[in-house]
Structure prediction request, 371 residues.
Amino acid sequence: MEKRKVHEPFILMSKRAEALPAWKSWGIRLIAFLLSLVVCGFVIMAVSGLNPVQVYATMAKGALGTSKKAWVTIRDTMTMLCIAVGLAPAFKMRFWNIGAEGQILVGGIASAACMIYLKDLPMPVLLLTMLLASLVAGGIWGFFPGLFKARWNTNETLFTLMMNYIAIQLTAFFVSLWENPFGSNSVGIINSQTKAGWLPNLLSDGYNGDYGWNVIIVLTVTLIMYLYMNKSKHGYEIAVIGDSENTARYAGIRVNRAYVRTIILSGAVCGLAGFVAVSGASHSISTATAGGRGFTAIIVAWLAQFNSIVMIIFSFLIVFLQKGAQAIASSYNLSQEVSEMITGIILFFLLGSEFFVNYVIRFNKGRKVRK
Prediction:
């Protein structure tokens, strides 16, 4: 019987046996970012006929053009970073926590409740109580998906996603309970006269000052998470479980306990983001407090390969693009969809660059025929 001839493929793709040096991997990402700017330039000219360089300058002014804009960008960067840092341990363990939106909201509810019912406490005690309450609330919201995953192997993606909707309705209930004035369907600015429960400005006075305490709190959490993930026994267990659950069990790691412990930690840090958003930014609570950042932070964590220090860069980049997109939409009368398309192109190139970081492509020039 004649053997069938098999042609080897012209393009061969395989996972890299060894990780690329840091300078090469970051070089690939930088090239991808520059290419995305070139593509966005063509899109801008095709859609609006504007000079792309002028549009990029407007984006920079929209995000960093004034001291107030710069501080708002820093504030939103810190909130995004806090959420991404919270998602990192769960995602590195391959526990797909899609419930950050809900964890942010319950953390915000806990903070707002303290501001309303405990406003007579001394400011340091009140702020500490709010911080702890947001951590506990977010941790509890993460506990249930972790428990069900550990005990009954439920799908954590669906479970955490459904918890988001519960948190949204819970937030709507408390907004209705606390609405001020009654019938406004809004809590409004909480303690606007006394500013009880507001994170104070660190470098200046006044409501439109800085957000220095947001930076200190979030960067402290970021550093602690980096040390936890890279220097602790629990961080090592998370990495082993993420690589292979069977290997982790063979090594004696209690996988189910690690699931519950890690998702509680993940939820608690996301709940802390709710405290930062309520106490250090809006001074209010609504169903829009999370604002979709729980999903956007997944991109940040993934691009940074779950390295909390690197997340600082990508958090700033995402927020910068968002602020810049809003600026060009208002400055050039472009639709929001066009500005969001520019952001999407840049993110597409950055995400696509991860393929070339993790995989190698070879061209089979000879194309030998195997009999």
User: Anything to note?
Assistant: The radius of gyration is 24 Å.
